[in-house]
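HUMAN:
Sorry, I am quite new to this. Are you able to go through these amino acid letters and fold codes? The numbers rather puzzle me.
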Amino acid sequence: MKRPLVESPDPVTLVGGGAFTARDLQMALQRASVIVAADSGADRVLAAGRMPAAVIGDFDSISPDARAAIPADRLHPIAEQETTDFDKALRMIAAPFVIAVGFTGARIDHGLAVFNALVRHAGQRCLVLGSQDVVFASPPHLQLLLTSGDRVSLFPMGPVRGESAGLEWPIAGIDFAPGGTIGTSNRALGTEVLLQFDRPGMLVILPRRRLDAAIRAVCAEV
């Protein structure tokens, strides 16, 4: 494995070129103060009055003005076209966790590619912040501290089986698969939800107001 391009003792906000609001960026930066941009995300970071610590991507969409404004030693082009800029950036960051903004929106293929990268790099603690949700790849064991009635959606990106406690509809005995059974719109019965899965590949989708609960859960040592 190649040495990471960004090694940070502090959490990282990874910014993409998709739509996000000033509130989204602020919400991420309050929890992850180091900014890394994925390709044209650099333009969005500069437009917000910030300077990225690094820019990673194939550089096919970053503007010439952004390239000129950012110090050369912070620009890290990766020429291969087999993976997305999100994938390139995610695998080249070493940090306690990553909050990604600007990676959800109108392009369905882009969104699916983001979810694919989350499970491909399941060891990377990355939470994708959207306008309504926070999405992350579940570790084998997960403890979520929520509020009764919170939505807990589970979407498999491959065949997965698991067990649960604290969900309105338990998942034991279900063969999850992207072309089969999925687990959207489940609900927390109380303040604690416990999940465990037999293999990587399950995405957990929570309301965005539960971002802090998601961060605590993915960063917990089991």
Observations:
- The helical segments are 22-29, 41-47, 64-69, 85-91, 108-120, 211-219.
